[in-house]
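Support request, please re-run this one:
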Amino acid sequence: MPTRRFLFASLTVLAAIGCGRADPRTFGQGGGGGTTPIRGAFGNTEIALGDAHTCSRSVYGDVTCWGDNTSDQLGTASTARSTTPIAVTLPARARDIAAGGSHTCAVLEDERVFCWGRNDNAEVASPAGPPVSLPQEVPLPKGQVLALSLGGAHTCVLVRDMASDSTLYCWGRNAEGQVGTGTPETPIVAPQQIALHVREVSAGVDFSVGIFKVFKPDGESDAKLAGWGTNNSGQLGFQGPPSSTPVPSDVLGLSHVAAGPGLHACALFDGQGSTPGVYCWGDNIAGELGRGTAGSPAVPGPVTVLPTGVTAIAPGYRFTCALAGGSVLCWGQNDSGQLGNGTLMPTLMPATTPTLTDARAIAAGIKHACAVVSDTDIECWGDNSSGELGDGTTTSRPTPASVALPK
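Re-run finished. Output below.
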């Protein structure tokens, strides 16, 4: 299959959020839940959330996972779920992790990428078929892996390689064009080169978004939001038909972008072309865009009543969380306590998670969320029917509870 290439100039990779993963390292901080919703690591810990499973990485490069395991997403050669963290065996220490709907990947210190879990759409870069129970290497070009983002059933990475200083490769489910090859088809088994000089990428359920630098006729360039895949709720950042190739929008000034396991996405804006702050767009059926209303999908617009200094944003499924100065604020659907405020009542405006005052990273899944609160402590809240909170139970919790991490 011919590879479509899109040329964009380079910007420094500041962060990458995918389905459910959080990375404060890059902020100096996406997936799960079907989208990788966030990239994450602070000091000693990194977290990544899938639909109903959660993983962490220690400062020593050890990876542990817990929760749902019906598709071998815990990487343990067993489909038994686990309500507490269990070790994933990798051939070398990990320096990054990410979780998708029901698959998981890790970047090793030697720059190899290993994936495991659900594979009926070749999301772990193996011929489509049954789940891959143990980590296996992804055949990527040699280079430095800059970012890793997992969607519902597709995967994307940014690699500094011979092609460019930040080359985008994607693979997996492509029925909606979310891989970006130009021709919707499924599955895409081998990593495909999608674009050059890409600053950031975040994979959603059946769509992807990124920050690309687009050249103008006069030789100057703009860093713009780009999206590809399904667009039934405007999740690509514009109202219009779906696209099987990256389409740059007119949205400028992004410093970070995050897709989640739902049909919306969010970004941090630095003020170029827009007022600084957090902007969200796409589906708004439960008020997940944080504008004080619920209903029709919307184009990018600011989240209201957020404090200044937001450093991370984590879209979940019909809810969203943000991190500002150690505090976690969430809004949207709350039927499983995923807002972490002690109730099951939804909210259309950002509301503080009261017990978290020193959070360092956040990540969101389908109906649960987690925060890194210290070098040795992760707290999670929301749905726990598969043990995804990691506290040794299957009891859902509307307030944060500590994960039983190995000592």
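Confidence is low (pLDDT under 50) at residues 1-19, 23-43. The chain has one domain: 21-402.
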